[in-house]
Amino acid sequence: MVDLAVRRPGGRTARIRVAVLEATVSALIEHGYDGLTMERIADRAGVNKTTLYRRWGSRTGLVVDAVESYAAAQADIPDTGDIDEDLRRWARSIHTMLTGKVSGALVRAVFSAGDTAELRHLRQRFWLSRAVLVRPLVERAIIRGQLPPGTNIDEVIRHVGAPLYYRLLVLAEPLSVESADLAAAVTAAAAKAGVFIDKSAHPAHPATVARPKG
Amino acid sequence: MVDLAVRRPGGRTARIRVAVLEATVSALIEHGYDGLTMERIADRAGVNKTTLYRRWGSRTGLVVDAVESYAAAQADIPDTGDIDEDLRRWARSIHTMLTGKVSGALVRAVFSAGDTAELRHLRQRFWLSRAVLVRPLVERAIIRGQLPPGTNIDEVIRHVGAPLYYRLLVLAEPLSVESADLAAAVTAAAAKAGVFIDKSAHPAHPATVARPKG
Lengths: 214, 214
Description:
- The first copy, chain A, is mostly helical.
- Chain A contains 9 helices and no strands.
- Helix content of chain A is 66%, strand content 0%.
- At the A-B interface, helix 7, helix 8 and helix 9 of A face helix 7, helix 8 and helix 9 of B.
């Protein structure tokens, strides 16, 4: 059973939503994206297929909702007051997600299923639903003066996750906790050195700006 | 037509090898890994199927040889005397490969085709055939004193490529030259700061090592 770990306020509507989203994640893992049908989800959740169409419109809408909820539920956003430690814990939370039995299978189902417009959309939503949660981690470090102003927050987030997804999904290498710590340390060192400062907002070579004549 | 850009010494044997490897890459791009058959490769190269089995043993052996040759032919290893510039050029060469019409299609065929033991082997060989070529770039920087001794060379190489492969193959985002430059700059800054120094070889916290008593 997949646990979305979201708050479950009472009420039949809320209960059905959780049951359907859990059924969607389970079916996605078991049958893959291509084998995922509304029938299978309805059967598993014990609801009528028309309920799914009425609430989520389409299979894509339903899968996006399920994957977003799951991705957000898996995100463990640290706030230790120290950017090195925060990024290290965030990288370890990615590691835990990627190597988890259910969560890892879900990530594989979403990210290794081929290359269609629908899947690209789903991947973007997965990324965004987690980026929204983790952005404050980097923002707080800028406010505390641990990272320079103008730091491109989304690029920092991308660079923490990239080596982990790359190892697992591209190179198909085993994923160690050490590689999570390394990805965090690399990103933190570069961020502190100002490498992530947006060049468009802060000209890298102010000396090349034309000086007024006279 | 796929150009392996390898030296082609005269002789029928060498000519056949190049024709077969080019046919393999073309067929892989056109039909994908699952649709790749020895018949198709033999037809395209204008050779007998038995020739393929005699020289390469199996489909896997042939694909590994073709992909390795192609991956190596695409690698443009800079040597400018400056590690920042060398890593930037290397990242741009990855960018060129990933966005190239033929090379990008080949990378997709190798890295987005699912998750079998055979494909994992193929991906490892692809990575290794390029890593072998690019290692001297990092080694030279250590010798010149631009990077600290003990720097884990393979991790440096992984971290330059990771954000680019991640964007293209995992997030399915467009790949800009700026993102290549950023990946190189992030890795260079972290490498100079000593983040890639192998902790096993150089204890990070020597103070925690037990001191002799007395």
